[in-house]
Write a structure and sequence with these properties.
Structural class: alpha+beta
CATH class of the largest domain: Alpha Beta
Strand content: 25-35%
Order of helices and strands: HHEHEEEHEEHHEEEEEHEHEEEHEEEEH
Oligomer: single chain
Number of domains: 3
CATH superfamily of the largest domain: 2-enoyl-CoA Hydratase, Chain A, domain 1
Radius of gyration: 28 Å
Number of helices: 10
Shape: globular
CATH topology of the largest domain: 2-enoyl-CoA Hydratase, Chain A, domain 1
Length: 386
């Protein structure tokens, strides 16, 4: 038997439904409004505190205030407050240096440095054709003074920072070699960086060293790869030890000729959406490969190693890598400065994100002495047997 609903009952149900909908909508709108009010109040407290601090400093600070330096410090402090070691604010000059570096260019003396015992600066490497090279400086030389300032007194970081400067400017370094101190005057100049080198080893094994991933890296990589394969390379060793990473676009272009067609790696952003960040075309180099890594292999260099391993193209040799699996985006501001901000984490399509974990090589090898590269020779051994 069919049951009929009266018009009055139908109207009552409609009214109840509308009331419930109104209540729910009002509830969630109120929650959203309250959250917005809390955010506004929190921001107000934050900026009021900053204003109070600024007023107190201006009324009581004994020295002079450089407004440009102060503003940069405020912006740097804000980003530092995120407590993220990869995010940072760059001044206009710092941002320009970053752009030059990404292009594989830098203005400087051509030195790779580290802190020596006693707080001095030890020269690790010298760029061929640089001002330091032409002046006769050598690896293992010790920089004891910079423009007359004793390095331990001014501090390692400040001393290294003072080596930077505009192209064409000069600086005097006091170099200690075999216990004798000698002054060298060097001129800063633009240095075009070589990020990829290669050579053929015995047994037709091609060895490729990649120091970073910059805009000029893919062309150098392609040239080295073509030279080695044309000369009959039957296996390849890629060395990304001490490679701190670099540009994702450069990494993509280096991986492309080595891997099969398809998506290689993806990134997941704050809102949960994912994007394909590394993709390879149908061209694929079919050779046995090994990648040498160490604790300073990070970021794009780790993704290079992880991608080759996860696609079954290479085995890893060396020590556990750094573990940086998050990516940064750069946004420029009207003042010429920029923010480098962590925006996503990434991984290959076959494995989990290794951020904070790193990659563990199949062949874990330590270099126990400085005069014998055990990792390098282990990679040669593996490729010789491939």
């Amino acid at each position: 038997m069919n049951k009929k609903i009266s018009l009055g009952l139908a109207l009552s149900l409609i009214a109840i439904t509308a009331a419930v909908t109104f209540i729910l909508t009002s509830f969630f709108s109120l929650q959203s409004f309250n959250k917005m009010v809390m955010d506004v109040n929190e921001k107000a407290r934050k900026y009021n505190l900053l204003q109070s601090l600024d007023s107190y400093v201006r009324e009581n600070y004994y020295g002079d205030i450089d407004e440009s330096t102060l503003n940069s410090g405020i912006l740097k402090g804000y980003v530092a407050g995120l407590d993220d070691k990869y995010s940072r604010y760059l001044t206009a000059d710092e941002y320009q240096d970053e752009l030059n570096s990404n292009n594989g260019e830098s203005v400087g003396l051509g030195l790779t440095l580290t802190e020596d015992t006693g707080g001095y600066i030890r020269i690790l490497e010298i760029v061929d054709g640089s001002s330091a090279d032409e002046s006769g400086l050598l690896p293992e030389d010790i920089i004891v003074k910079v423009d007359g300032d004793d390095v331990p007194e001014i501090g390692f970081d400040e001393a290294v920072d003072s080596l930077r400067g505009a192209e064409g400017t000069s600086i005097t370094l006091t170099i200690r070699r075999n216990g004798i101190d000698t002054d060298y005057t060097l001129t800063r100049r633009t240095i075009r960086q070589i990020t990829v080198t290669g050579e053929m080893l015995s047994g037709y094994i091609g060895y490729v060293k990649i120091t970073s991933f910059k805009n000029n890296t893919p062309d150098q990589f392609a040239e080295v790869l073509e030279r080695l394969t044309s000369n009959g390379a039957k296996a390849l060793i890629f060395d990304v030890r001490d490679n701190g990473g670099g540009l994702l676009t450069a990494l993509n272009d280096c991986l492309d000729p080595l891997l099969p067609e398809g998506t290689v790696a993806t990134a997941e952003y704050r809102d949960g959406h994912t994007e394909n960040i590394v993709y390879s075309d149908s061209s694929e180099l079919d050779l046995p490969m090994a990648v040498i890594v160490n604790e300073n292999t990070a970021s794009a260099a780790e993704l290079f190693a992880a991608s080759l391993r996860d696609f079954g193209k290479a085995q890893l040799v060396g020590t556990q890598t750094y573990g940086k699996g998050v990516m940064q985006a750069t946004a420029e501001f009207d003042n010429g400065g920029a923010i480098v901000l962590t925006v996503a984490e990434y991984k290959t399509v076959y494995s989990d994100c290794y951020d904070g974990v790193g990659l563990i090589p199949e062949y874990q090898v330590e270099n126990e002495t400085a005069d014998y590269d055990s990792q390098y020779y282990k990679a040669i051994e593996i490729m010789s047997a491939a």
